[in-house]
Amino acid sequence: MVKEAGGNAKLRYQITSGNTGGVFDVEPEVGAIFIAQPLDYEQNKRYKLHVLASDGKWEDYTTVTVNVVNKNDEAPVFTVNEYYGSVTEELDGSPVFVLQVTASDPDKDADQEALRYSLHGQGAESEFIIDEVTGKIYAQRTLDREERAVWRFVVLATDEGGEGLTGFTDVIINVWDINDNAPIFPCPLSCHGDVSENSVIGTSVMEMTATDLDDSAVGQNAVLSYRIVGILDVTNSKQGGVPAFSEMFSINPTTGTITVGLGGLDREQIESYLLVVEARDGGGMTGTGTATIQVKDVNDHAPRFIDQSCQARISENAEPNAEVLQLAAEDRDTGENAQLTFSVVAGDQEQKFYMVSHKQEQHGVLRLKKRLDYERHSEQKFNLTLKVEDLDFSSFLHCMVEVEDYNDHAPVFIPHFLSLAPLPEDVSVGTSVARLLASDSDSGQNRDITYSLSEDSDTEGLFTIDQSGVLSVARPLDREKTAQHQLVVIATDHGIPALTGSATVQLPLLDVNDNGPEFEAAYSPVVFENVAGPQVVRLNQTSTLLRAMDRDSPENGLPFHFTVPPEYRYSNDFYLQDNLNGSATLTALRTFDRERQKEFLLPIVMSDSGHPAKTVTSTLTVTIGDQNDHAHVAGEKHISINSHRGRMPTTVLGKVYAPDPDDWDNKTYVFEGHMP
């Protein structure tokens, strides 16, 4: 060691050579050598380092030898990266040797006998095992290629007796096939196909392909051939299959393609076939499957009406859209080829009808489009041509639709107002007055008419009308009661409901002198007693003239003539003067005494100017008016009164009796003296 004092004692160290790969380095001030990079025994086992020490002026060298001690740092290496082996399926006598793997340890001086092998992956230690010392792999169970055709494993090789480093390799084991599987058709119950009816020979129907789980790359184990072993008619599945013609379909023995074998496929005869197909592999194993073939419909049948004749009736009162009738048709085809459309194609120039099609149900409804009028001759009967059609074909049906009359017209009188010539009021009962006729545009009972008279126009039943329309007098007429009749004649048809029409008959009556004169008023003349005559009698409050009236027409009335019977003409009491102007005057000839005679009854004879004249006698009552020309005298009245227990109710006892010949005077009564 070099020792100096002060600044000259500060040394610097460095490696100048021998440091291959720069794996070592030195602390420059201390001189400690350390490892700077990883060491590799397999690359360099010894290093000879030259180290320089310097104080800035002086320097010295030394050699440092570093021996690298070996370490297990290399994993075992297999001879190949992938090992391939094979074993035949279904082999007995386990375990069966498959292959051997080999590895080596690259470490120098490593113990190659210390390698240990292990098998890893699905199936390790169950289907396959490995000898850990030799690396031999065995199949310890019977294998099934159809379950698994290739097995993949990882084999590990570990040095130092299984405690060191590990290397790995891939192992692929193929399972060789034997013919241990029969062909299988993929459809669980039955494969399905379809073909149109009338298809030509050779038309492809379906692929009937089976699968064989054996290896198709090895021999003939999975090479299949096909044949049809049976054909059944299964149109009616409830009855089971019925054997069908065996050559209707054929199959390609190599591809399994089923084609039409014969012409004449008819869905309407056989709708569904069931084929039994056999598949055979090269090893002689067979499997069967069924193919259900539906024959698709082709529109090769025309629809037709089920009914060969058609008749219907409809009321003319039916509303638009009313149903006339339903018609059903049939079509041996099916699906859209059997969807039927109904229409009216002839016999309906004014388009009174239309048809509603229920395509799926194969029936149509004839309905009314416009209102009908039976009174039009062209609308009383329709000879319709109805058509039913599918997509390509059609058929026709003639349908007779008769329209029934509805009571939609009321009877009509022509004319509806009839003015008749005047009729004498004394016409005899039963005399025909007129004949009225009504007409009705309807038919049958709807046009049958019954005649009657409105009760409001003939409240007394003076007339009657028979069912031929003859209007007659039923009871005596009286012009003075009704001078003119306004008769309402009603015609009622027999429809349901019935309709009515009316006409008015105006019938004036000719007057017949069947009424004599009458007093114009209810005369009540008064002649007071004690008045000297002669005096003109006042017949009422306003007039001294006696007047008459006549209910007959004027030609049978004025002028009137007045007189008294012969026995009264020379009476000393009264005198009647005819004024020859339709009035008369009555004169009282003397003084009268009421107490002797209170009234006189004078018969007045009156005549009208009719031809012949009508004369009647009416009584005129003349009252003698009272004058108070007699004093009353004292009178007595005895009244008996019953009282109950001294009590008497308030009651009228009676009128005071005071005798007096006069009877028009008014008496006043007062008490005389004290009245208890």
Question: Could you walk me through the main structural features you see in this protein, from its secondary elements to its overall organization?
Answer:
It is a single chain. With 676 residues, the chain is mainly beta. It contains 1 helix and 49 strands. Strands 15-22-21-17-18 form a 5-stranded mixed beta sheet, with no helix packed on it. Strand 29 (381-389) and strand 30 (394-404) form a beta hairpin. The longest helix is centred in the C-terminal third of the chain and has 4 residues, at 566-569.
Strand content: 35-45%
Oligomer: single chain
| Shape verdict | elongated
Q: What's the gyration radius in Å?
A: 75 Å
Helix content: under 10%
- What spatial order of strands do you see in the largest sheet? 15-22-21-17-18
User: In angstroms, what separates the terminal alpha carbons?
Assistant: 195 Å
Give the beta-strand count: 49
Helix/strand/pairing class, anyone?
mainly beta
Tally of DSSP helical segments: 1
Main β-sheet description = 5 strands, mixed
Low-confidence stretches: 1-5
Mean pLDDT across every amino acid position: 89
Q: How would you sum up this structure in a few lines?
A:
Helix content is 1%, strand content 40%.
Which secondary structure elements does this structure contain, and how are they paired or packed?
Elements: E1 12-17, E2 24-26, E3 33-35, E4 46-54, E5 59-67, E6 77-78, E7 82-88, E8 96-100, E9 103-104, E10 116-120, E11 128-130, E12 136-139, E13 150-158, E14 166-176, E15 191-196, E16 204-207, E17 225-233, E18 242-243, E19 249-251, E20 257-260, E21 272-280, E22 286-296, E23 304-305, E24 311-315, E25 323-330, E26 341-346, E27 353-358, E28 363-368, E29 381-389, E30 394-404, E31 412-413, E32 417-419, E33 423-424, E34 432-435, E35 438-439, E36 449-453, E37 463-465, E38 470-473, E39 484-493, E40 500-510, E41 518-519, E42 526-528, E43 535-536, E44 545-549, E45 561-563, H1 566-569, E46 574-578, E47 583-588, E48 599-607, E49 615-625
Parallel strand pairs: 7-14, 15-22, 24-30, 32-40, 33-40, 42-49
Antiparallel strand pairs: 1-4, 2-3, 4-5, 6-9, 8-12, 10-13, 11-12, 13-14, 16-20, 17-18, 17-21, 19-20, 21-22, 23-25, 25-28, 26-29, 27-28, 29-30, 31-35, 34-38, 36-39, 37-38, 39-40, 41-44, 43-47, 44-47, 45-48, 46-47, 48-49
